[in-house]
Every structure is written in structure tokens, then in C-alpha cells.
């Protein structure tokens, strides 16, 4: 099968969870014998892009994300024209590059892109965050989860002093965004990476037609993770690893504040990641017991997590499907996380009972961390299989690719031959 992956998050020297997911999926499909290319941005350089992101196939620079002076922050409104503009730009690039591919799979932040993809293109998109209904993609405001569905009230995310006119303009932007997204979902096949995301969109657009939508969790490259687990030394007593962008919503500040003076003396916190809060938090908490390592490449991050006594994911925002949690579970490490968003759904991938401990509050999370650190670290032999391995979930995705196309009969034939063999 010829597959074109598309994402505006690629290329990049430091790519986040969405970008890593695209590369993991694309490389795994290549390993399974499919012909896969990635279509991404052309304004971050056009040479060596595949090598930069760790992709083993061909990278196509196809569109830019230049901003022609939207001035949303200065005007204090969400512009109703901005996101459709970028969606049309990505849709045009897909239309240009799609010929010759059996399926185009978009992973990005603009759910209405499908409205601009030509009829006849077998198009699938994956929704990785709450950007289906929220213009900031996160539903997190003033240090707390936002559950306000009133479109005009979304203006508070861009200005503190929105008057009636600004609220009306923002409401037009939000209503248009959600309406276009619902039409795109009804028109094309869509994957939500957690049932939490599907439910959240239905809260905002209750009458949306999601009959063409599926829930397929994020997956990891388990052979690579298993190799990292096998190569890791024994877990280091008291070593706690936190991985992620040091930013609002990720809970690093709240966790460090709450944990101060409450963890055992042998606890050592290692924070792998960079972001706008790092300098402040390092000045306030850095020392022998709390080390800020800055951004780490993927092999280094895996090595840190594989030897940890405990992995902690303190996100206060509602993570859709945390790859950090999945990686900790796959590595056999105990993991403590907030019971928010799609994280509770990931308990099904535990390698042993109690591997994933969930907390309802930051206070409870710190208590769970302290209790786990009072016990010796658990060392388990790597499991032969992992439920969220790309190889285990790929058949569901390939079936979706082939659905409603003449590829479906070919897919069924190949599956029957594989099982017979």
C-alpha cells in the first residue's frame, strides 16, 4: 500500500508527541513492506529532513505556515478566517501530492483540512488533541481544565478584557471552526486517539455525525523499547524521571511545589525537557535532589526512563493519549499519573497489576510517589509483547485505510493469507 503521511509538525529539530507518533507509525509501516512518504513543511529547511526526524523513507517539503499578519493577540479576538486559511493551504498541498498514493493520512491541528481535499482521495485524519472543538487545542485556562462550551467565552483565552464586540467575533470563529470540523468528520474517516477525545467533541457538537470515526490509541515502537529495557541497568533506588515540555498544563511546577519536603531523603528527581517554565523552576527547586537535564534526544530519554525507580506524568491538562505513559509501561517501569483525559484508558496496557497508579489531585499524586519510593524498585523481564505496540494496532489502521475503497478486498485477501500462513 502506498501511504502519504501529512503533518505541519514536521520537520523539526525537537518534535513533540504528535510528530514522534507520525514518524513511529511511518517507520513501522515501512518495516511491514508498505511504501510510505511524509509530506510536511517547506519553511524549516528542505535538506536532510528525513534524517533530522529519524524517518527511514522519503520526506516531501510541501507547504509553509507563514503568518500573513493575523494579529489575533493585538486585536484580542480569534480571527474567523485564520484557521480555514491554513487548512486550505494544507488541503491544496495534499491535492498536489496525493496522486499515486492509496491513502493520505493527516496528523495535525486543523481538523477541517478534509473539507479542502478533492473527492476521490482516500483521506484519513487522526485527532491527537482537543483541537477538534477548542481553538487552543488544550482546553486549559488559568491553571485549570476549561469545561466552558460557550463560544463567546473562548475570548478569555486571548484577552482578559473582551467586550461584547470581541466576544461576538470570537464566537463566529469558534462556531465556524466547530461546524467545519463536524462536516469534515462526516465527510472523511477520522481516528480519535482516545475515547475521551470523541466524547469531548460530542459535548461541544452533540448532533455531529461520527459514524465514520474510530478510536485507536496511540502506539509505540515496542521492539525499540524492549531493547532499551533489556539494555538498561537495574533501576536506581529513588530515581524519579519526568519527561515533557516544561510548560503550563504539564504540572511540573505544581508537582515540584507539592513534593517539596514530602519525598524520602533518597529521592532524586530528573526532569528531561525544556520550556518556558524551566528557568524559573530550576531557580526555585534545582539542586542535588532535583536536576533539570534540558531537552534530551529520544534514545537518551528512553535510557533515563528505563533505569528509573518511578516515572511520573503530573499533567494537569487532559492528555489525550500520553505517549510518555505508554513508554513507561512498555519499559516495565512503575508510573504515577493524573487521572485526567485519556490516561485512565491506558491502564489496559499494564504489564503487571498496579503498574499505573492514578491520582485525582496533585496532593494524592505526591503521596503515591512517596509510597512507591518507600519500596524497592521493581525489575521485571521485558514482556514478549505489548498491547500498544504499533504492530498490534496496525491491522486496525490498515483496515480503516482500505474501508470503502477497492483496497478493502485486497486487504482482506492479504489478511487471510497471513493467518493461513
Describe this structure in words.
The chain is α/β, with parallel strands linked by helices and 421 residues long. The protein folds into two domains: 2-220 and 390-420, Rossmann fold (3-Layer(aba) Sandwich), CATH 3.40.50; 223-373, Glycogen Phosphorylase B (Rossmann fold), CATH 3.40.50.2000. The chain is 37% helix and 17% strand. It contains 14 helices and 15 strands. Strands 3-2-1-4-5-8-9 form a seven-stranded parallel β-sheet, with helices on both faces. A six-stranded parallel β-sheet has the order 12-11-10-13-14-15, sandwiched between helices. It has a two-stranded antiparallel sheet with strand order 6-7. Helix 7 (222-231) crosses helix 10 (298-306) and helix 8 (252-259) crosses helix 12 (362-373). The chain is globular, with a radius of gyration of 22 Å. The two termini are 20 Å apart.
Total discrete domains: 2
The largest sheet has its strands arranged as 3-2-1-4-5-8-9
* Number of strand elements: 15
Can you tell me the CATH class of the largest domain?
Answer: Alpha Beta
Distance between the termini: 20 Å
**Which residues sit in consecutive blocks of at least 5 with pLDDT less than 50?**
none
What is the ordering of alpha helices and beta strands? EHEHEHHEEEEHEHEHEHEHEHEHEEHHH
Radius of gyration: 22 Å
Average pLDDT over all residues: 93
* SS-based class: alpha/beta
Just name the CATH architecture of the largest domain.
3-Layer(aba) Sandwich
- Gross morphology is globular
